[in-house]
Amino acid sequence: MNQDQWNFLDRYIGDRLVHADGIFQEALDASTQAGLPAISVAENQGKFLYLLAKIRGARRILEIGTLGGYSTIWLARALPRDGALVTLEFSPEHAAVARANIERAGLSEVVSVVIGMAADSLEEMIASRTEPFDLIFIDANKDGYPDYLRLCLPLSRAGTVIVADNVIRHGKLADPTNTDPDVVGIRQFMDLLAKQPGIESTAIQTVGAKGWDGFSISVVSA
To answer: Of 57, 133, 163, 177, which is the most exposed, with the fewest CB atoms less than 10 Å away?
Structure first.
C-alpha cells in the first residue's frame, strides 16, 4: 500500500459514510487562504470524533489546539442543545480564522475560543473550578502533551474520554534513539498514560490521507 491508495480509500469512505457538507470544505478553504498549515484531521477522522462525542453523550467538550476550527465544528455538532465546547488556541491569527469558520457553521453560541498558552488556560480553569468535561481532544504541540495530560485530569471526572492525536509519528514513537522533541513529548505522554492511576488507555495506528500516524484513547475511571 502507498499514499495514493490510502488517499483513494479515505475518499471512498468519505463519499459513502461521512457525508460532510459544504461547511467543512469552506472551513478548510478559509484556513488555506489564511496560510494555516494543512494539518487538520481528515474528514473521516472528524466524523470519528463526532461519533465518539455522540457515543459518550458529551455535554461538555474541551479541545486543545483549534487551528482553523475544522475538528471543532465536528465536535460541536455532536453536542446537545445545552452543550458547550471550549477550544484553546495559542495563535490569535489562527483563532480569528477559527471563529469565522465556527460562526459560518452556526456554532458560535456553543463554542468558546480561548487564546493563549494552553497550559496557562488549563491552570486558570482548574483554579476557577471549571465544571469537568465529558470529552477532551488533544491536538496541539506534541512536546506539550505530557503537561496537557496532567492538567486535563483535574478537569475530568469518572467517564471522561481523552483522545490525543498524532501519537505514532510515522513509527518514530517506538524508536528510543529518536530525540526529536515532538517524538520525545509523545513518548513521555505515553509513559504517563501507562502509569497513571485511575485511567485506562490504548492507542491505534492509522493510515490514510494524513499518512502513517494514530491516536490514543483513554477513559478516566476514578
So the answer is: 177
